[in-house]
Amino acid sequence: MLAQATFIDVPGPTVSAERRHAPSWAEARQLAYHCAGPLPPLNLRPADAIGRTLTANITASQDLPHYASSAMDGWAINGNGPWVMTTAGLPLSPGEASVIATGGLIPAGAAAVLRKESGVVVDGAGGARQLTLKPDAKLGETLPGRHIRPAGEEASAGEVLIPAGTLLNPAHIALAAVAGSDELQVQPKPSVAVVLTGSEVVTSGEPAPGQVRDAFGPQLDTVISQLGGEPRGQIRIGDSYDEWLAALAGGQAGSLAGGQAGSLAGGQAGPLPDVTITTGGTGKSGTDHFRDAIAALGGRLLLDGIAMRPGHPAVMAELPDGRFVIGLPGNPLAAMMALMTLGEPLLAALGNRPLQSAVLMTSGADIDPDPGRTRLVPCTLVHDLVFPASHTGPGMMRGLAWADGYMAVPPAGAAAGTPVQVLPLPWTTSFSSEVRTRVPMV
Fold first, then answer.
1. Between β-strands 405-409 and 148-149, what pairing exists: parallel, antiparallel or unpaired?
2. Do 316 and 303 form a contact (C-beta atoms < 8 A)?
3. CA pair distance 368, 375, nearest whole angstrom
4. d(CA 356, CA 341)
5. What confidence tens digit (pLDDT) does each residue in 25-59 have?
6. What are phi and psi of 381, to 5 degrees?
7. What is the DSSP letter of 116?
8. I want to staple 106 with a disulfide (CB 3.0 to 4.6 A). Which of 58, 68, 139, 182 is the partner?
9. What pLDDT, in 10s, does the model give residues 141-174?
10. How far is CA 165 from its chain centroid?
């Protein structure tokens, strides 16, 4: 059994006024989860529903199978034999038989099916063809019901086959189709678009001084999928206010990450994404336009900064049409920690999934205090102890690349041998399973 805990950030005398007014890491996660409700269900064709969560029971529209059928290739028979062969599919009188294939409809009057291996058809008197048992036929081959699949053998009409809440796999889809379902009611995945900003960002080659390689474009769509979202594409803009405004409004804005003109609707007419994630531009300098663009669109800030490190400049807003916007800081590790803090809970809420809980694990090292804010530290698991990874500066990705999860270290720090909150990264599912099944309550 695992314990859960919530650390409350209590600012000390050295905490700045700005940090005192920012919500704690735990509060930010709760806010991101509770600010949204589940998206309404939608109906999809069975083949399109694989990987979705069912929101309404699938029931059998009729008995499964809905008619009695043969379980073998052979002959439908009436009586004990020998039998006179008659036309397939016609009702059988006592002493008659007709050819039947596996899955074939049992004709009226048939009491059993004789396997092809157990019988032989010979010419009888008067030219009539006659079916007889082979000498080596097994006992009981002609007993009533033998080799017949009765109607309703798998399910009765109205029986629940797949309950609501099931994550649908291909076998579920096949069962739903057999049950007569042409559409399935499922929970949609929130659609997520990405706005990549920064005129200094380059996407190929070695960056010159003053330039940086794009750390977000190659990874964010995959991470969004792992967090339960549905990627809607990426657009890249510069640092001007007009580009920001157009991008968040959903119109033409810069170019797709692949180099073609595009928009938040994926370059086509259609609904705008449920969530937009921006990178950079969350500071408060003259080139940071997140807040001004949100205000111009009539939106409201739900959260402006978090008392955590890295990732404290993260911002979250809601637009008048109900779309959410998450502003990630420009530093790669800071952005990923902000995405875990805000994006993971928001996508869980929209997708009607529970908020993932942190678990308590034993710290294998001393971690210094940071008054007034929670430290999010990529970590590795070694013999049931968690250790901070190296190379975990706000602009670094090396430590995160080899981490199993991340620690949420309270403002007071953590001493070696004491419990600390740990969450898995979305791509470390095996670590998540190991943590929740092997680590005892601290």
1. unpaired
2. yes
3. 10
4. 11
5. 999 999 999 999 999 999 999 999 999 999 999 99
6. -100, 125
7. G
8. 68
9. 899 999 999 999 999 999 999 999 999 999 999 9
10. 13
